[in-house]
Amino acid sequence: MNRDARIYVAGHTGLVGSAIRERLENQGFCNLVLRNHRELDLTRQAGVEDFFDRESPEYEFLCAAKVGGILANSTRPAEFIYENMMIAGNVIHASHAHGVKKLLNLGSSCIYPRQAPQPLKEEYLLTGPLEPTNEAYAVAKIAAIKLCRFYHRQYGADFLSIMPSNLYGPRDNFDLKTSHVLPALIRRFHEAKEGAQPAVVLWGSGTPMREFLYAEDLAEACTHLMKNYSAQDVGEFVNIGTGEDLSIRELAQITAGVVGYEGEIRWDPEMPDGMMRKVLDISKIHALGWKARTSLRQGIRNTYDWYRTQGVS
User: Fold this and answer.
1) CA dihedral 256, 261, 265, 268 (to 10 degrees)
2) Which CATH superfamily is 7-171+212-244+278-294 part of?
3) Residue 311's pLDDT is what?
4) Residue 34 half-sphere exposure, CB side, CA atoms within 13 Å?
5) Global pTM?
């Protein structure tokens, strides 16, 4: 990508999109095309087509999505499958129709079957049933992967997909009704510390194992792939992660320590755990020349520092 190339970052205000935008700006890319949701609703085909007609982006990072944790996915599955399928269909088709040179599609590790062997390899896609608590979101993300793959197969479009592990970082969503586990823990422990609460009750058993990737590390991986590799090199998609996991119980203890909460942590086993283990095989991305840099504790510290300075509610 040339420094003056027209680069569209879809979802540039979100966790990953904002990290990619900042990284591109810091590297001297001066012609970014940006629209927030109020300016461009990606679920509306006519608006998307009009945008591509007027702006003619050359490269694209597709980070826009409707996202959420177990509660949001479990209670609003129709919204998650509809909005994410519409975003993918509209944007990927318009990118092909308007000659986008390269597109990078952001997926999610929830695409893998619930009972797939661990660590999760790219070839395990569609080898078994999905985790019920986020099935709707996973189906939409699988559809986006296949759209990119089939546009590449039929038309030669240079559209590639990546599958990151659980993400976190500055500008994350800290709304307890819709957030993922790590920002929810940060907020719960912060509010408990500020309110001098003697205990915090958390969902599930604390035993599921998860892998976490700092958003700025993912942004580095995305720009690395866009600059150096094509869909032909990457294949259908590539996992992005650290290759290391820990239990939610351990994560809670680390997060409480970073926040400075010293009260009791209790668990509610009546609430859902989700998939019991989810760690990615990252040998493919390592072979493509990228490794994560940020330790989990440092990433949580950075995220908590941002949360406190922003006064997020």
Assistant:
1) -80
2) NAD(P)-binding Rossmann-like Domain (3.40.50.720)
3) 65
4) 15
5) 0.94
